[in-house]
Amino acid sequence: MEAGGSSESPADQPKRGKSKTPRKAKDSVLKQKSPAEFFAENKNIAGFDNPGKCLYTTVRELVENSLDSAESISELPVVEVTIEEIGKVKFNTMIGLVDRERVDEELYDDYETAKAREKRLAKEARNQEIQAKNAALGKKVKEPTPAKAMKGRGEASFYRVTCKDNGRGMPHDDIPNMFGRVLSGTKYGLRQTRGKFGLGAKMALIWSKMSTGLPIDISSSMRGQNYVSFCRLDIDIHRNIPHIHIHEKLEKKEEWHGAEIQVVIEGNWTTYRSKILHYMRQMAVITPYAQFIFKFVSDTSDKSMTIKFARRTDVMPPVPLETKHHPSSVDLLLIKRLITETSKQNILQFLQHEFVNISKAHAERLIGEMGPEFQPKMLIKSLTDQQIVRIHQLFRQAKFEDPIGDCLSPAGEYNLRLGIIKELHPDMVATYSGSAQVFEGHPFIVEAGVSLGGKDVKQGLNIFRFANRIPLLFEQGADVVTRTALKRINWSSYKINQMQDKIGVFVSIVSTKIPFKGTGKEYIGDDITEIATAVKYAIQQCCIQLKSKIVKKMQAREQQERKRNLSKYIPNAAGAVYDVLKEMAQSHALKKKRYEDEDATLLGKVSTRLITKDTLTEKLSQHVEQVDYEMALEFATQSGVSEEPREAIYIHSLDTKSDFIDFSNSIFCFRLTR
Amino acid sequence: MAEKKKRRRADADDDDLPFKNRLKPDSVILQTLRSLTGSAATASSSSGAKTLTLADLALSSTCREVADLSLSSVQSSIESLILRIARSILGGDGFAFDVPSRSSANQLYVPELDRIVLKDKNTLRPFANVSSVRKSTITTRILQLIHQLCAKSIHVTKRDLFYTDVKLFQDQSQSDSVLDDVSCMLGCTRSSLNVIAAEKGVVVGRLIFSDNGDMIDCTKMGMGGKAIPPNIDRVGDMQSDALFILLVEKDAAYIRLAEDRFYNRFPCIIVTAKGQPDVATRLFLRKMKMELKLPVLALVDSDPYGLKILSVYGCGSKNMSYDSANLTTPDIKWLGIRPSDLDKYKIPEQCRLPMTEQDIKTGKDLLEEDFVKKNPGWVEELSLMVKTKQKAEIQALSTFGFQYLSEVYLPLKLQQQDWL
């Protein structure tokens, strides 16, 4: 552009451009955007990139909210997800639109011109010809692939996603704000949670508004409420406030607490089917104490499916506690906010109570270090900006004890192990739970599991990543876990074959702040040494456990094969020895060489065929047999006693409602469910 | 025509070749070399009478050495071994070999001898054990095959030996390694077993010797030179008017020197084993050194492997340490290309290669080796290499023209007596 370096104002440029109609550049008007508007425009930030991913993310957000909700009241979660496919006709009737036939065919993108039609017909004819030829030659005839259903751009698929849980439920009056206001949430604060930004369910709502225009339906009931709240609302994107259609209390028909959320969105089941199923499966691995029922309902019955991920344990990790900030993790803005929010009066109390790992004595020392203008009894609200900066600087430089991590709630080694066994049925599994470590003042815990073998596991490394107990499915390549497992673990030193064995690597990281990379919260970068080291260590610990098992297995196999392996070489060895003996016997007989008494008798026996190759073979076999017996005995005495440790099994409790037939006896009772 | 071209190119190069102007006339260089060789010969003849052997040293740990054995004695030791085994088998006890260990833990560098020797540790190789059944079977088979060779008094190559029972041996490295075990066990050199390796080394230059009765003149062997015969016992009557022996690591440099008839300008014998030296080349070099009493100058790459090759010629390999007495050539000088030459001869950056992690590790390991430590000059050079993390091949000199090596580099080195 010639105007590149000149001083002419950019407003003049369009005039010199090619467009003939001179446009007047709009005067830039200062506009403001509501958060809802921002996220509607940048929905990829929250994982709503395309219809397929939107469907996936919607399911994900709803499931995670349900789990959080159930866990917050220490209830074993039961989550029911239903995705119902809605055809175009059905959708139109739903929104009260008359389905119109196409009148002007040429108007559409998928209109077939005469030329294209000619081409297609010619191609079809050719294919048929080839097939006829093949059939005539007796070749295997490939089923002609049905011509792909022409799908125009406008041909969107719609889905009704329903998620029902047994969680806490929501207070009747809060419901509109909880769904109709982006960036409002209950999960703010320093705590390990699945969600964080108060975006999930609202993004689903924004997406439904963008793609279908339909509102969201929420039913909820809390413990002790004798009614069910029902709310139908959508969101006023420009003002970021809820727009309520219906908000009423209904009669409670059955005992239930929790929430049921229903939203109709555009999606793409075909391409994201496997992702959604993977997600459900991995979620079942990391939360074996939850029960998931996943249903897909479609008009074509062969596409419909119901999968139940049964509960395998009733041991639930504790509810993560909200914790105070660690001094080395806060920034200037956060300190200011804490100052405005605090109930404490003076700076001493503030330091002591608003942060972890600062005792009273420590706080006094810190204040002394800040400089002469700081006094322990200084009013906290009276601090100047400069003084706050001074506090921040000191926090950066001073040394503090690491946070202890008791506010975290890892899945637990037991649950991780159960989850792996339940979903993968591996031949071997080892798990390890690390102690809390610290990254930039945030505690984190790494847990790992390594499995070998199992169903639906491909050869090589299968990596399962979890962050704050949610599965991460996308952008695997750059993730710290993938990198570590691929590059920094020497599998062969643990007797594991990286290419041939079916290796499952499970790593779960929990923290008050997971350092996600990228916008989509889908992977953890490889550049944080603390995390990379902890991940490597955890995987190695699993491998060490596995190695001893593998070695034992190999030894057992060796035991079985020892006799065969030894016997295999008997003919070779006996043959070689006998050949030399024979030659010696010959030269002995020809008196070419003299041998002394004992040797002479032996060679004499060889010449008279008293000793043959078979004699040697037989003697060697006897020896091998004896050695094998001795070694087997030794192996048995060493390893016979030790048995695999027993594991507690979880037996699913029966519904009390089912009726039984009891066959009673004086000693026992058979109870059969009907 | 070709002659003309050559001359013209030589004229043109005259000014271009760096350092060429520092060269004195050949006659002056020759003069210094001659005086040096003379003194070296007298020195070695005076001290050569008392070459140290293992027996002369009162070493704290006993060491094992092998000797050349006659065919019949090899045969009878095999026979007595087999008889012992046969009796053991018939007695129902299976059998086992007591094989000298050739692991690196069992090696010892003796500074007085300047070579690696084998200590006396043995390992038992029983048949009735899963981990050693294979090896002991192969050992039996090799013993039988060698017994056959002795009886018939013929030579075979290692490859031949392998092919007699491919099914058992599976790959040649296994039969080769057991072959070394057997010579260790019987206490004889590998050549005494009548098993030879294929020819690998070549020699060209001012050397006349007899191979199996035929007189060979190595100045008249064309460009390729004479292949070093695998049976050193048939080589004899060495005569030479050379001033030194030039040991070359690589074939490429060897061909350059042979084609330029470097040995006619400076009377010398040029030897190469094309990489790691085989037994025959090492035996041949030792024989030349011992009989002709010439200094040996080595031209190897400036990388850890070049130095390693040098060490194998000089102190022996760990694999064959049991026979190091016969295989090593004492007093080899490191002529080039040394790490310090890279800057001295202004070898441009694009011809130097960065050392890999592995290279650097090998270099650091070498610094710990006794045969490097005994020569302070080598330590200095190697430390420089590890520090600069740069290596260069002999071919790097070709940047100044293909003939730079023979025209300038080597003459200059000789003139300055620049070797360590």
TrEMBL record, chain A:
Residues 1-10 have a biased composition (Polar residues). Residues 1-35 are annotated as: Disordered. Its EC number is 5.6.2.2. Keywords: ATP-binding, DNA-binding, Isomerase, Nucleotide-binding, Nucleus, Topoisomerase. The keyword Cell wall biogenesis/degradation does not apply. It is an enzyme of class 5 (isomerase). It catalyses: ATP-dependent breakage, passage and rejoining of double-stranded DNA. It holds the Pfam family Topo-VIb_trans. CDD domains: TopoIIB_Trans. Residues 403-562 form the DNA topoisomerase VI subunit B transducer domain. GO terms for biological process: DNA topological change. ATP binds at N65, D165, T186, K187, G195, K196, F197, G198, L199, G200, A201, K202, K521. Homodimer. Heterotetramer of two TOP6A and two TOP6B subunits. Component of the DNA topoisomerase VI involved in chromatin organization and progression of endoreduplication cycles. Relaxes both positive and negative superturns and exhibits a strong decatenase activity. The B subunit binds ATP. This is DNA topoisomerase 6 subunit B. It comes from Rhodamnia argentea. The lineage of its organism: Eukaryota, Viridiplantae, Streptophyta, Embryophyta, Tracheophyta.
UniProtKB/TrEMBL annotation, chain B:
Homodimer. Heterotetramer of two TOP6A and two TOP6B subunits. Residues 199-235 form the Type II DNA topoisomerase VI subunit A all-beta domain. InterPro entries: Spo11/TopoVI_A, Spo11/TopoVI_A_N, Spo11/TopoVI_A_sf, Topo_VI_alpha, TopoVI_A, TOPRIM_Topo6A/Spo11, WH-like_DNA-bd_sf. GO terms for molecular function: ATP binding; DNA binding; DNA topoisomerase type II (double strand cut, ATP-hydrolyzing) activity; magnesium ion binding. This is DNA topoisomerase 6 subunit A. The keyword Metal-binding applies. It catalyses: ATP-dependent breakage, passage and rejoining of double-stranded DNA. GO terms for biological process: DNA topological change; meiotic DNA double-strand break formation; meiotic DNA double-strand break processing; reciprocal meiotic recombination. Residues 134-195 form the Spo11/DNA topoisomerase VI subunit A N-terminal domain. Its cofactor is Mg(2+). Belongs to the TOP6A family. CDD domains: TOPRIM_TopoIIB_SPO. Keywords: DNA-binding, Isomerase, Magnesium, Metal-binding, Nucleotide-binding, Nucleus, Topoisomerase. Mg(2+) binds at E249, D301. It is found in: Nucleus. The active site is at Y163. It comes from Rhodamnia argentea. Its EC number is 5.6.2.2. Residues 244-414 form the Topoisomerase 6 subunit A/Spo11 TOPRIM domain. Component of the DNA topoisomerase VI involved in chromatin organization and progression of endoreduplication cycles. Relaxes both positive and negative superturns and exhibits a strong decatenase activity. Coiled coil: none annotated. GO terms for cellular component: DNA topoisomerase type II (double strand cut, ATP-hydrolyzing) complex; nuclear chromosome.
